[in-house]
Amino acid sequence: MGLAWGLSMPMTKLAVSTGHEHFGILIWQMVLVAILMGIPLALRPRTNGPRLRHLRLLLFVAFFGTMVPNSLSYIAAGELPSGVMAIIMSLIPMFSLPIALIWRLEVFEWKRLGGIIFGAVAMFVLIAPGTSLPNPSAAPFVLFAVVATICYGLEGNYVAKFGLDGLDTIQVVFYSSLLGLLIIIPTALVTDQYYNPFANFGVPEYALIVASLGHGFAYACLLWLVGRTGPVFAAQVSYIVTVAGVAFSIFLLKESYSGYIWLALALVMIGLFLVQPKAQSVEQG
Q1: d(Cα 55, Cα 194) in Å, to the nearest integer?
Q2: What is the per-residue pLDDT across 32-55, written as a single tens digit (0 to 9) for each?
């Protein structure tokens, strides 16, 4: 799961390199995810599908699990190095924890507060003028990526608190993707962001396929894990996502980073260690 999500970071960077807008790219991502989830649904014995009562869950997952965070991520990926995007995505547990505390899904500990502080310092290192980013004018786009991680944290807590109401993760990802397409297709048409990827199929389109399938697989696994371990512990997969995302970005995109970015990565890793719940808390969850 972590490797798949990490690989999606440089693939996303390649996918946005054509200049296609976020809503247009998001359409094809959701189509590919729906196909990926639809195959096992079609092959297994017939199960009960969603009912009207599931609409709130599916809308929440569609908005806060895909449409909003992925749109923001596509915008940010066009301006930020892929490795920086991977570092920012690792903040999910640090944003999950305050939400979990508000919803009484987790227990407050001073050590875990320290983890949030380390994450905040890491973000300051990334956006401070004249420090880490190759293009200082791209600093505002860090906030786009940060809001995307907040969305993932919010969605994970929602699933942990309210559950999937009898659906499994494959069903939730499949039907939320279909529901999302009903919203995002007209949005892309109205904003003139729709495009035909088959008109000029090349490396960016192949990259979008890899990124979408990796995201769909990792996303379904994450929802499954949230239901069994809680949102903060499940988000600890960010360890692997971050390291894999940075490594794949260096290997595939030949990215290189300043010392400030490596410092931000180190701070985030310390923050992830501090914010994780105690072992007994995970077992009880």
Answers
A1: 26
A2: 999 999 998 888 877 778 999 999
Burial 245-283 (b: 16+ CB within 10 A, else e): bbbbbeebbebebeeebebbbebbbbbbebbbbeeebbe
**CA distances for 105 relative to 59, 92, 114, 212, 233, angstroms:** 22, 16, 19, 30, 11
CA angle 142, 146, 147 (to 5 degrees): 120
User: Which amino acid is it at 57?
Assistant: L
In b/e form, how buried is each residue of 74-85, taking b as 16+ CB within 10 angstroms?
Answer: bbbbbbbbbbbb
Question: Any idea what the Cα angle at residue 89 is, between residues 81 and 167, rounded to 5°?
Answer: 135
**Rounded to an integer, what distance in angstroms lies between the CA atom of residue 249 and that of residue 10?**
5
Cα Rg of the chain, angstroms: 18
Is 169 within 8 Å of 178 (Cβ atoms)? no
Cβ-Cβ contacts under 8 Å for 103 (sequence gap 6 or more): 157, 161
Distance between CA atoms of residues 85 and 14, nearest Å: 13
Residues 6+ apart with CB under 8 A from 192: none
Distance CA 270, CA 285 (A): 24
Q: Which tokens is 73 given?
A: 């991520």
Chain segment 153-192, per-residue pLDDT in tens: 999 899 889 988 889 888 999 999 999 999 999 999 999 9
CA 257-264-16 angle, to 5 degrees, is: 55
d(CA 206, CA 218): 18
* Contact between 153 and 92 (Cβ < 8 Å): yes
pTM for the complete prediction?
0.87
